[in-house]
Amino acid sequence: MYDTALNSAFWVIVVFSLVTLFDNIVLQPLIYSKSVNAHPIEIFIVILMAGSLAGIPGMMLAIPGYTVLRIVAKEFLSGFKLIDKLTENI
Prior knowledge:
Elements: H1 2-36, H2 40-76, H3 81-86
Helix pairs in contact: 1-2
């Protein structure tokens, strides 16, 4: 009886973990990238950097902060090749 319950609990944890990883690594960067017109890898790197620097609050503010930075860079630094490449879709 306990063996079946433990087996079921194990598989529930495995499936939940895999779905959560897929959502965090694949779906969220794709959704965020479409909403702010940035490449998904950009979004993934920005979230990882913000998490490393400021933890959970940094991760929550990463995408809005990055979007504001891109807009400011486009308005004030629009002669540099890197800035033009990063802000071409805004």
